[in-house]
Amino acid sequence: MIEIDVEGEKKEIQKRYRALLKACKPTMEKGDKRQIRQAFELSVDAHKNMRRKSGEPYIYHPIAVAQIAAEEIGLGTTSIVCALLHDVVEDTELTLEDIEREYGKKVANIIDGLTKIAGVFDQTSSIQAENFRKMLLTLADDVRVILIKLADRLHNMRTLESMPRDKQLKISSETAYLYAPLAHRLGLYSIKSELEDLSMKFTEASTYKLIAQKLNETKIERNKFINEFIKPIEEKLTSQGLSYSIYGRPKSIFSIWKKMKSKGVPFEEVFDLFAIRIILDSPLEDEKSDCWKSYSIVTDQYIPNPDRLRDWISSPKGNGYESLHTTVMGPKGRWVEIQIRSKRMNEIAEKGFAAHWKYKEQSNENGLDVWIQNVREMLSNPESNALDFLDDFKMNLFTDEIFIFTPKGTLMKLPFGSTALDFAFDIHTDIGAKCIGAKVNHKLVPLSYKLQNGDQVEIITSEKQKPKEEWLNFVITSKAKAKIKITLREQKIQIAEAGKELLVSKLNALKIPYNPQQLSKICLYFDLNSVLDLNYQVAIGKIDLKELRAFQIAEKKQPDNKNVDVESFNQLAKLIKSKDSDMLMIGEEVDKINYKLSPCCNPIPGDDVFGFVTATEGIKIHRTNCPNAIKLMSNFGYRIVKVKWTEQKEIAFLTGIKITGIDDVGVVSNITRVISSDLKVNMRSITVDSDDGIFEGTLMVYVNDTSHLAILLNRLKQVNGVLSVTRFDSEHLNV
User: Fold this and answer.
1) Rounded to 5 degrees, what angle do the CA atoms 527, 394, 200 make?
2) Among residues 113, 117, 120, 14, which one has the least CA distance to residue 57?
3) 347 catalytic residue (yes or no)
């Protein structure tokens, strides 16, 4: 048993508390210190017998969350108190009533929003999705709930090392899927970048380590280049009498990896590994002119790329972000990104919503207020499925924006890819519901027309118009989707009521009882999600007496036909856990456990993998970096099982390889020779496209494991004319 140094821990707790008070100092007012002390002592007492997975006292966590909230987000005393107490109700005997009595209703409401949802959930939904929905309901009243939750998630990610592997994957995936985009939407860019990096550290461990190592190796050379680059700019800025600070900061590991993936290039070919930032100490009235003056100095010195100018000073982003971005050609033929902003703009960029609130009086910018209003409207549909809601919500977190004008010249912001119908719903839900077309730049366009930056749009409505199901195929904003779904559901319920009577009479004619069990079987037979869908299909004539008779015959032949229930998940999970360990070994002769390798990512031995318990196909094995992994692990964490490969070389696994190169005579035959003759690898298919002297080929081959694949990739790279060779994932959703 590990000896615990009680006195040493007490000293460490006090040390961390003092560091927290120091971080709170800028926002503290009279009486605040006493309030924070009281919350701290309550938290210490409530968690006194609790420890984290790492073995540390649990109290370290609420102190760290409070410090992140104060130092990195810039929140005030109420938030610090809530951060210190955020786990008290969930983990101890204390109730929300106790908190309200002691600290008031506001603190109690925030902690309620932070407390995970209690009770039993439908297994087809995600507990995490429900928790998230509850947080957002509180967001509609108080944004601090989300900000503290982000601080909580950041500290959990920083200390994820001590968690078991399956928990690491689940929490990292949730973070990448929801929390990083949310931090982005609230303007917390540094927190967003750190959450992305930390998620990648656990889901793409080897790639993360490789990029981190290479960044470290190139650090000296990079710093030398930055110093050389900024020297003439510093001279000019000083001569113009501008007060400024200028520095280069490396891009996040995640953004470098994203660039490597999107461009299909190795680390060595990613040139913009850092951004230069100029921060001006200018009074509010001079900010814009000083930024443009600095831009002029930079572009006098270095040639800018005209396609890469981003002016978020004249038109800030919806989350309040203001900055001037340009990319210039630096020494040695390297592109360099430059960000120019004032001290105020930088604080908003670093601390997002909290800073936006601080400067609200000085600015007319209300993008975040509008966004919160949109969230309120989305949450107004209590019947929507939690996972559908999440998907719709997430869609609007991480998108670029376009600027659209109304006929009267009012500027509106919409996500990139928005249609005329999205614009109509953005003005008002009633206008969206009655929209029949639009005029873009005085020209008539259909509802599905994709808007461009700077378009002037006039909406045409009709009282006779009603939302249609096909609208969901082209709208992209969560507000439009939510409203269309609510209206369609209302229409559907009305039609389904009439269908219910029809169904009862048809079932009576066939002597099939109308009860929940039978209805469940009929829904499964016709692949429908609910009884509402069944009644609706009967009402519109999609299911008639003849088809119900076919169901009856099939049921008699196979009494258990398609009778799959939620229990199958639990049974499979129990089956695995009843073995010597709670881990499924792939490759073993497992008679009882049905598993298959998922075609969306084609895992092979050596890949980092997890198992996903499906309703009808047993366990599907996915790579942890599968295109679908993040969504599966974040939304259906309870269905994830740990998986490990057994040591065996005789089995071959299918994987995909992408090759690009110079289209030369004999290059394809050289590639196939390496695969089939030299390495004796079986090939399932090969497709080669050639265009203007460049070819791109995709191959599906059978390999034993990742080291076998690595040998094959290296040999292919050596073929004359081949420029790049990469493994690829199948992108289709097949879970």
Assistant:
1) 105
2) 14
3) no
Q: What is the CATH number that goes with domain 6-203?
A: 1.10.3210.10
**Would residue 115 be called left, alpha or beta, if left means φ above 0 and alpha means ψ between -120 and 50 degrees?**
beta
For the chain, what is the mean pLDDT?
80
Q: What distance in Å separates the CA atoms of residue 179 and residue 484, rounded to the nearest whole number?
A: 26
Question: Is a pLDDT exceeding 80 seen at residue 735?
Answer: no
Q: How far apart are CA 642 and CA 652, in angstroms?
A: 22
Helix (H, G, I), strand (E, B) or coil at 628: coil
Write down the H helix ranges in 528-616.
531-539, 545-557, 567-577
Say if CB 202 and CB 168 are below 8 A apart. yes
Q: What is the pLDDT of residue 124?
A: 44
Instruction: For residue 13, give both structure tokens.
Output: 């707790």
> Is the model's pLDDT at 725 over the cut of 80?
yes
- Give the C-alpha separation, 607 to 168, whole Å: 16
Query: CATH says 653-728 is which class?
Result: alpha beta
Structure tokens at 622: 């996915």
Report the C-alpha gap between 434 and 703 in whole angstroms: 57
CA distance 632 to 624: 10
- Cα separation, 721 vs 243, whole angstroms: 53
pLDDT confidence bin for 323, thresholds 50/70/90: very high
Could you tell me the pLDDT band of residue 84, with boundaries at 50, 70 and 90? Answer: very high
Cβ 472 vs Cβ 418: under 8 Å: no
Whether residue 447 contacts residue 419, with contact meaning beta carbons closer than 8 Å, is answered with yes
Catalytic residue among 90, 161, 300, 731: 90
Q: Is 90 a catalytic residue?
A: yes
Rounded to 5 degrees, φ, ψ at 526 are: -90, 5
Q: Which two tokens stand for residue 20?
A: 């927290």
Above pLDDT 70, what percent of the chain?
82
Distance, CA of 427 to CA of 408 (rounded, Å):
13
Residue with tokens 């800073």: 355
Of the candidates 646, 605, 637, 602, the residue with the CA atom closest to the CA atom of residue 620 = 602
Pairing of strands 683-691, 640-645: unpaired
Which residue from 270, 477, 303, 275 is spatially nearest to 393, judged by alpha carbons?
A: 477
Give CATH for domain 211-362.
Answer: 3.30.460.10
Segment (H or E) for 726 = strand 722-728
For residue 354, the model assigns a pLDDT of 62
For residue 336, give the 3-state DSSP assignment: strand
Q: CA torsion angle for 233, 238, 239, 243 (degrees, to 10)?
A: 120
Q: For residues 327 and 272, is the Cβ–Cβ distance under 8 A? A: yes
When mean pLDDT is compared over 478-487, 628-637, 676-685, the highest value belongs to 478-487
Between the alpha carbon of residue 568 and those of residues 502, 589, 615, 618, 619, the distances in Å are: 33, 21, 7, 8, 11
Q: What is the pTM of this model?
A: 0.69
Q: Has residue 47 got a pLDDT over 70?
A: yes
Amino acid at 152: D
Q: Which residues of 11-23 are buried (b: 16+ CB within 10 A; e: fewer)?
A: eebeebbeebbeb
| Segment 172-176 long-range contacts (CB within 8 Å, at least 24 positions apart) | 172/198, 172/199, 172/200, 172/201, 172/202, 172/203, 172/633, 173/199, 173/203, 173/629, 173/630, 173/631, 173/632, 173/633, 173/634, 174/128, 174/633, 174/634, 174/637, 175/199, 176/200, 176/203, 176/630, 176/634
Where do the structural domains in the chain lie, given as residue ranges?
6-203, 211-362, 486-557, 567-645, 653-728
Single out the catalytic residue among 5, 41, 45, 91: 91
> Taking the CA of residue 240 as centre, how many other CA atoms within 13 Å lie in the half-sphere pointing to its CB?
20
Query: 368 near 360, Cβ under 8 Å?
Result: no
Residues 6+ apart with CB under 8 A from 422: 414, 415, 451, 475, 476, 477, 480
Q: How is residue 450 annotated by DSSP?
A: B
3-state secondary structure of 410: coil
